[in-house]
Amino acid sequence: MTALHYRQPEESDHIRVVEAIPVWWEMPPEAAPIGLLPRLFFQHFANTSVLVEDEGGRLVAFLIGFRSASRPETAYIHFVGVAPEQQRQGLARDLYGRFFAMMRGRGCTRVDAITGPINRRSQSFHRALGFAQAGDTEVDGVLAYLDYDGPGQHRVTFTRAL
Asked: Contact, 26 vs 90, CB < 8 A?
């Protein structure tokens, strides 16, 4: 395994990240959820997010997260990605651990996250990290909140104490 370099993302990293998403998720660019990650996250939440590159400068992972302005005791993990060849090696767990430590240092006592009912792998990962999963009804065999992000946009929520 090559050495990895962790740093805060910069606004100029936005395009690299959104271009990686359809490749890493193996989906057509028009179907990729890149609209969930606008440039504003790289402008306004870079100091609470993490980008990982290999020794050649190639993007291999990222975590976009922030401390809630409305609920300062709460941190939120918005979007995470790991290159397929780096998956299942503990990199996502490491990113979460770094984020947890950073948010504890800023006074947060909990972390929230969401995913879609279809994303069983994300659900399993979050439960393995100690997140409690929640919802108000069953969607595709999973407890989720109906219309959480708008009509037809059902979501599974996660909360973890720090």
From this structure: no
Instruction: Tell me the pTM.
Output: 0.93
Contact of 75 with 111, CB cutoff 8 Å = yes
* Higher pLDDT pick, 33 / 6: 6
Q: What is the C-alpha to C-alpha distance for residues 60 and 146, in angstroms, rounded to an integer?
A: 33
Is domain 1-108 annotated with CATH 3.40.1160.10?
no
Token pair in block for residue 80: 């995470």
Name the nearest CA neighbour of 102 among 127, 71, 75.
75
The letter for the amino acid at 40 is: L
- Would you list the domain boundaries of the chain? 1-108, 112-162
pLDDT at 1 over 60: no
End-to-end CA gap in the chain? 30
DSSP for residue 71: S
DSSP letters, 108-152, are: --EEEEEE-TT-HHHHHHHHHTTPEEE-SEEETTEEEBTTTTSTT
Structure tokens at 82: 């790991």
